[in-house]
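Anyone have tokens for Peptidyl-tRNA hydrolase? Sequence:
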Amino acid sequence: MKCIVGLGNPGAKYANTRHNIGFLAIDALAEKHGIKLSESKFKALFGTGMIDGERVVLVKPLTYMNLSGEAVRPLLDFYKIAVEDVLVIYDDLDLPLEKLRLRSKGSAGGHNGVKSLIQHLGTQEIKRLKLGVGRPPAPIQVIDWVLMNFSKAEQGSLQHVLNASVDVATDFIDTPFLALMNRYN
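Reply: yep, here.
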């Protein structure tokens, strides 16, 4: 069984913000594969289904970003999913909108959601799909930028990166991760 986690903050206030691009990617993936996100346990909203013949759980932690690991760890334990079968999707300030990057391990790089996952999963070897949201233009502060909604002008770019994230996440199911990185990075 595979697990794909999108990071974000719960609530309507944050729904379409840059920091919630991981949630938006999970929603797009769920829609594409007909998986209903209707289970609410382990401090998470999730759903199970099939993608390319493999059973998959799609997850949106309902903790705030900096506590994401509190939702993911018990869910992995319940379904007996190994950390190597997890893909985490989240926002990255160092990539421009429309760009994505896969990584098989590394530090949190200042991302509090990833920091929480590393802490609760006990490893930095967590497969990640980083979706670019770009750096804020001056004088906007980073915290204000990531909690801003995408502008109307950015909607086409946002849709492009969400479509690409669905392709990557779908291919994650049955493609070795190194090959996946070579294909999409």
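The longest strand covers residues 44-51.
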